[in-house]
Every structure is written in C-alpha cells, then in structure tokens.
Amino acid sequence: MHCIEGYKSSLPHEDTIIFVVSTTGQGDTPDSMKVFWKFLLQRNLSKHWLEGVRYAVFGLGDSGYQKYNFVSKKLDKRLSDLGAMAIVEKGLGDDQHPSGYEAALDPWMSSLWSMLNQINEKFFPQGPDFLIPDMKLIDQPKIHITYHSVDKVDSQSSPNSDLKWIEMQIERARSMSPGKFTNDKTRPNCFLKLIQNQRLTRAECGKDVRHFEFEFVSSTIEYKVGDILEVLPSQNQAAVDSFIQRCNLDPDAFITVHPKEMNNHLLHTHTSANVPIKLKTFVELTMDVASAPPRRYFFEVMSYFATAPHEKEKLQYFASPEGRDDLYQYNQKERRSVLEVLEDFPSVQMPFEWLVQLVPPLKTRAFSISSSPIAHSNQVHLTVSVVSWMTPFKRKRSGLCSTWLAKLDPEQSIYIPAWFQKGALSPPPPSLPLILVGPGTGCAPFCGFVEERAIQNESSATAPVLFFFGCRNEDGDFLYRDFWLSHSQNGGVLSEAKGGGLFVAFSRDQPQKVYVQHKVRENSRKIWNLLTEGAAIYIAGSSTKMPSDVFLAFEDIVSKEGGLPRESAVRWLRTLEKAGRYHVEAWS
Length: 588
Ligand code: 2AM
What we know:
By secondary structure, this protein is α/β, with parallel strands linked by helices. The protein is about 35% helix and about 20% strand. It is globular, with a radius of gyration of 26 Å. The chain starts with 6 loop residues before the first helix and ends with a strand. It holds the Pfam family NAD_binding_1.
C-alpha cells in the first residue's frame, strides 16, 4: 500500500492501483487528495499516460448530497481518459443506505478479489474465500507498545497542570497513534477558555442550541468570518476508567506506541512520539471509547479473542457478509460504543495493541465560527446545537462534543484545545451585495458577516445584505432574535433603508410548513435585482435537503425573473458558482 506521494514518476509503472476516495463539502476532493488531483488534471498528461495500468475505484459518499460520490466518479473518468483500465466497475458506497456503505463494498470487494485472482493467481493462492473470516486471525497488529519503568520516564512527564504540559501530552499522544491523526491535528493551534455558555432556545421547542464565547489563553490566532473552529472534546472520565478496567489495563503504566515497521534509528530519535506517556492519558486523548461505533473489522478481530463459543459464533456472524445488515443495526443504528460492545461480549480480552489500532480515533469536531474577529478581538464565538437522539431501540444517544460543551461552566478553568481552518464561505468585501440563507445553526457564520459589515458600515457605506433565517417557532428557537432585529432597524445593515432585509420562516407556527426557500421565492424580484448588481449567494446549515431545496428556489427566480428556460437557469447558477458567487457550507 502506498501513500499517494511520489506518484508523479511511479504511477505509470504500477501494475494495479486501488483507490478509495471520499467526497467532502459540495463535491470537493478531500484535503489529502488535493495535490494529487491537481496533478492528475494537468493538460500535458497524454491520453496514453496510464496505458497498461489497471485500477479500481471505490467511493465513499452520501446520496443525501446533490453531488453524491462526485469525486470517485470524476477520478474514475479521469483515470480512464488517461488510458488506465478499470478492472471492476467503480463501487459507490452510500451512507444513506440502510446497511451503510458496506452494502456496496461487499459485492465490489468480491468482484475485485476475483478479478485480481484471475489476473494473477499469486495475489490469492488460496482463492478469495480466505478473506471470509474464520477461526484464524490472518493479521497481526501493526503497532508495538513499549512499557517503561517509572524511574526511567522523562521528568517532563510528571503531573503539572500548566498549559505547556497539557499541550505536550496532546502532541505526544496524538503523534504516537500511527495513521490516525494528520500532522496538523496533533499539536493544537491554540487553547481557549470558555467565558460564556448561554442557551438560545426555550425548553418547550425541543432543541437546545447554545451560544459559546471563548477567549484565547495561549496565542491569539488570526481568523476570518466564515472560518471553522475545530475543538478536541474531553471524554467522560468514568467511561475512560471503565474501558481501562474492562480491558485489564494499568492506567498508570507509562507507554510508547510505535508502528511495527519503524526502523531503529527513528525509534531512538528524540521526538514527542518517543517520550513515554501515561496509558490513561493516551486513551483519553486518542481513543474514542464511549461515543463512536467501531468498524466491522473490530468485530472480526474480537471474534478471534472470544473464548465463550456463543460469543465467538455471534462475532463471526457479525463479521461475515451474511451478518452485515444485523451488524449495521446493532452497531451503527444503535451507535454502540467500543465500551458497550466490549461489555456485550465479556469473554473477549483483546490485546492493547489491537485496541490502539482499532478503536475509532478521538476526532476533533468542527463548527462554523459565529463571531467577527474585528468585533471581538481575542475572542471566538460558536453557535452549537446540542445533539441528542433516540435509536430505533429507544436508547438515548448524545453527541460527545456538544454535550460536553453544554455542561461546561465558565467559572471552571478548563483549557480547550482548538484548531482553526479556512471555511467554504470566503469573507466578502464590504462592497459586495449579499444574499445570505442560514436556517437553524446555519445562521452562525452570518452573525459574523453581519457583525463585521456593521463595523465596516461605520466608516463607509457598505453594499446591501438580505438575510433569510428559518426556525421552528417565533417564541422557541429564533436564534439571536434581538441581534437580527437590531440590525434590520434604524439604518442597520439589514434595514430596508440600506437596501437590505431580514426574512424569517417559522416552520411550525402555522398548519403548513414554511421554510427559507418559501421566503426566498417570495422575494424573487428583490433577489434578482441584487444578483444583476453582482451579489453573491451564501448558504449555510443542515446538509440533508436544505441546500438543494434552496438551489431550486434560486433556479425558479433566475428562470422567472431572467426569462430563461430551466436548463439555462441552472447553467446560470453554475456559472455563478464557478465565479465564486455561490457558496455553500453544509453540515449534518
Ligand atoms: P422543521 O424542523 O419544522 O421541518 C431549522 O432547523 C429549520 O429548518 C427548522 O424550522 C426546520 O423545519 C427547517 N427545515 C427542515 N427541512 C428543511 C428544508 N429541506 N429546507 C429548509 N428548511 C428546512
């Protein structure tokens, strides 16, 4: 297996290449593929460049999105245009499928193995059947753990509550986890201290949306409106303790974790990944033990270590293609965490190496920033919906990060590790007219836009802004109501006097649903006039259906007001998108 690095010279000499690729945002390539994709699109590559190279593509996508599996389709086409030959039809994994993307993966894998076997028997001398799990465990863990005696441990590892020490622990733990975190997700960009945690919704509306204000406590990071803040959540201490106890681990042991194939030289180099860390700290900072469900391979490996026959049988069934749908129900639909799965199969004792390798990584969570750095120096604000839901078996589940944030008290001195990222919504210059659509927490980035524009407007006149907001009830979840109303009055940036407007859709305040797209259609002429003056459209919020429904509303407007047939209206909007005047930031 290769990293895509070095592809420039090596790609045409490969025999067979297998690509597994996801799609992010609105049909974008994942970050780790960007350089490769740019390279592959070069015009000077001849259409014979990859002749003789065989390939297979499997895409990970979500058919809820308009550009479903867009990147895998583009990649497949480009490889074929460059002369490479597909050995199997591209596979399209769909997260919306009742059995998850594995429903498409299983048949794709089995055709892939059989094709590979036909091409070259040395791939699988025993035939592809040996991939079906049985009593043997073919693999070995890819990592090695060294246990250190306490007296040999670096003095820097002794407990100390200062920020530098916390930063070191995070960097150490996360850079030790091979392949789990990219380099930019090991050492935090900065630490934040919570200074405000305010509920924005009333209990009766059934939603808990909160406004958080944080202060920079280490370095101040420069960010822009529309940027993203990623936060590393803290896991529940009791869950971490239960996991350690369930796995018979010593929380106070000092460990280092290395990839197995690491050479001696690297092993002895003094990097943060080579300094021992407490096992409990390592688990806390890198292994999601109580929230993310493990993947199918976890069950396969568990089956090997199960000593009770009925548990072994059940785990083997879960890991087999026949058990796929039942595993999906048990695991993904019910969102069983690693800890819960291990508790359901008490005879399993998995070595820590396997656990480190297979427990899902503790991921940072990304939120759209809702403040303008010009309006709040040394601060960053978020608008977060506290996630909780019932599984099909009526088990209450809640989002790790939002639930943790909601319980934090600004009086406590807790340092929150954070990373800043550029968002999909580029900051608009003051002279650009704006059409903003942000129902629910989709309003977050637009708080920053409006705040910033109000400040810019104090020195010189800014272009008009139309803002479309949607929520359930006027009295329940009209987020930042006073803020929007104040900017829509007395010559504010959303006021009619400034050519702007505030339009709110209350979806549940009348018998029929009223959504932002209805308000957009009602303001057809106003929107068209602004578009012809060069306005940019910005859409943010839930990814399920809202962005495509809103696109349809704009399509209607362009068609009606611009007198264009439907296909031309779509092309017109696509051109807008290409010109950087149609932006979408959607999240699930
Ligand atoms: P609902 O929950 O009453 O269906 C913020 O979440 C608001 O977005 C809510 O009022 C929600 O309405 C609404 N919403 C749900 N689906 C939507 C869609 N496809 N397009 C626009 N708004 C939608």
